[in-house]
């Protein structure tokens, strides 16, 4: 009772950057179960398992009078074979399961994919980092070379093949999401910068400067982007990119009150 009262009076963990709270002091919003999933990168079968599992969990949430909110942490496309199917599957979720709140953050791969559509010459890296697999999933041949003319041919074919609803879905994705003591973002945050002054580039691309030193950002940061062998569950950050595209599990987490449960969906295809 005392702990409930304490939480009621002071519902959020400390905002002092020098003080990292204990895990049990970090709370999901009241009466809401949060779910988050790391980088999917075109792995439709693991995504489907994750969705089936969430839908079951959400029934439990409902009977316990909790709302269910699911945050996908970005990087839906590239590297894996089924980027198109992954985007298709994700964008339908709010219609199929309206009882669940669905949030789809933009990862750096979603940014670069859209960059290729506007200025392919400036986004050649996309082709090296899995963009050719995404083009193939839309039935588009990769550029024959990096010559401007070949790039424009591939870009135009991609623009024709990409359904307007997919483009609108990509353009609608927020960069970050706040819920209780948790901040969801694709890559991480820059230490020493207030939450409302973090740059979009850092939130979608940062690695070492965020990961190397424990730092309390005023929220526990739930992120993907940098592959780790296991989900990393620390008081100040939760890293969920376990490299699903390379035959490893797709990782997620379930956050309710001050409890944390790791979710794991193994690769089913031969690798
Ligand atoms: Mn990624």
TrEMBL record:
GO CC annotations on file: cytoplasm
Domain (Calcineurin-like phosphoesterase) ranges: 34-216
InterPro entries given in the database record: Ap4A_hydrolase (IPR050126), Calcineurin-like_PHP (IPR004843), Metallo-depent_PP-like (IPR029052)
Domain of life: Bacteria
Pfam annotation, one family: Metallophos
GO biological process: RNA decapping
A molecular function GO annotation: bis(5'-nucleosyl)-tetraphosphatase (symmetrical) activity
PANTHER family xrefs: METALLOPHOSPHOESTERASE, ZINC-DEPENDENT ENDOPOLYPHOSPHATASE
The protein's name: Serine/threonine protein phosphatase 1
Biological source species: Insolitispirillum peregrinum
